[in-house]
Design goal:
Layout lengths: L4 H10 L4 E7 L2 E8 L1 E3 L4 E2 L6 E2 L5 H14 L9 H4 L12 H5 L36 H4 L16 H15 L3 H13 L5 E2 L36 E3 L1 H12 L6 H7 L4 E3 L4 E3 L4 E2 L5 E8 L2 E8 L4 E7 L6 H15 L1
Antiparallel strand pairs: 1-2, 1-13, 3-4, 5-7, 6-7, 8-9, 9-10, 10-11, 11-12, 12-13
Organism: Pedococcus aerophilus
Pfam families: Beta-lactamase
Main location: membrane
């Protein structure tokens, strides 16, 4: 894949970018670049192997864990989620199914409305963030949000839907959501540097997420202390390429399950792309995307299926990655034709 290094340099300087850029083609890493700081206050420079948060990119891990349970017969895509929710979240329509949640077509009310006029510096959690350590702990934050439209009527991106999926995972398996994802997705894919990390106890190789492009304001109080079904995985750029290859080689879910997950279920016109189950899809070509944006996180990883190429941008500030993402997206489109 051809990268215009001059244009990339300009994109890096625009916000400015802090994080990691990596391009892998097959078994070869053709670009690995790090910018900014892993920890600004201590002036620890970013490294190419840093663990950085994925925000909503993590939804693919939730979707894959759910599909593993579908393959095992513990869940069914057509099952109404009311069976496992019981009397919890009574405003969720009784006809909402697992498939509706996976495809963002459930119509349930969202605890984090991405269409609202919010700033990255806002404190949007309505319960103490230190209490959010399991999926069940999110229930008070999901309560009282009325249905927006009938299940299956249309696509509407919904964070609450993926937290509900995490609750279903906990109830169907009897273990925490984080342990379920580890056993069902992370370990089969061989991702040694990927997992959920507590924001208030990050290890030395994990990047602090910064709310702004300058200054030391960290995202610790803006997000759940331990991310859940809708976000929170930390990973490395190298592990992302390993993830895509494991996924497409059938080491996480079966080929039939994968075909269903990567089939376009919605045409998302305003995003100029399509959506499957947990994955964004290129508007017309065989390219898969994970994307995440949150306080202290700006992330995208794109995989070109035919050439086994992964292009990843992991930013540890809220908006710093987007000029770089846009520049590399243009290079991807040029390659795809």
């Amino acid at each position: 894949m051809q990268i215009d290094t001059v244009s990339l340099d300009q994109a890096v300087a625009e916000r400015p970018f802090t994080g990691v850029i990596r391009v892998d083609v097959g078994d070869e890493c053709v670009l690995a670049r790090s910018e900014g700081f892993l920890h600004r206050g201590l002036r620890v420079p970013m490294t190419p192997d840093a663990r950085i948060a994925m925000a909503s990119g993590s939804k693919a891990f939730t979707a894959l864990a759910v599909m593993r349970l579908v393959e095992d017969g513990a869940l069914r895509l057509e099952d109404p989620v009311r069976g496992l929710l019981g009397s919890d979240l009574p405003l969720v329509d009784d006809t909402v199914t697992v498939a509706h949640l996976l495809t963002h077509t459930s119509g349930i009310g969202d605890y984090f409305d991405e269409d609202a006029d919010l700033s990255v510096s806002d404190y949007v959690m309505t319960v103490p963030v230190h209490e959010l350590t399991t999926a069940e702990a999110f229930l008070p934050m999901l309560e009282g949000r009325p249905q927006k439209f009938a299940p299956g009527e249309r696509f509407a991106y919904c964070n609450s839907g993926f937290v509900v999926l995490a609750i279903l995972l906990e109830r169907a398996t009897g273990i925490t959501y984080h342990e379920a994802v580890k056993r069902l997705v992370i370990e089969p894919a061989g991702l040694e540097h990927t997992g959920f990390l507590p924001l208030n106890d990050l290890p030395a190789d994990a990047a602090t997420g910064y709310v702004f492009e300058e200054g030391n304001l960290a995202n610790t109080l803006h997000l759940p202390v331990l991310g859940n079904g809708d976000g929170g995985v930390f990973t490395t750029a190298e592990d992302l390429h390993r993830f895509w290859l494991a996924l497409l080689d059938g080491r996480i879910v079966s080929r039939d399950s994968l075909d269903l997950m990567l089939r376009p279920h919605s045409d998302v016109v305003d995003e100029d792309r399509r959506y499957g189950m947990g994955f964004w899809l290129h508007r017309s070509r065989p390219a898969l995307m994970l994307e995440g944006f949150d306080a202290g996180v700006s992330f995208r990883s794109t995989h070109l299926v035919e050439s086994r190429t992964t292009v990843s941008v992991l930013g540890n500030s809220s908006r710093g990655a987007w000029p770089v993402v846009a520049e590399l997206a243009a290079s991807i489109d040029a390659q795809l034709g």
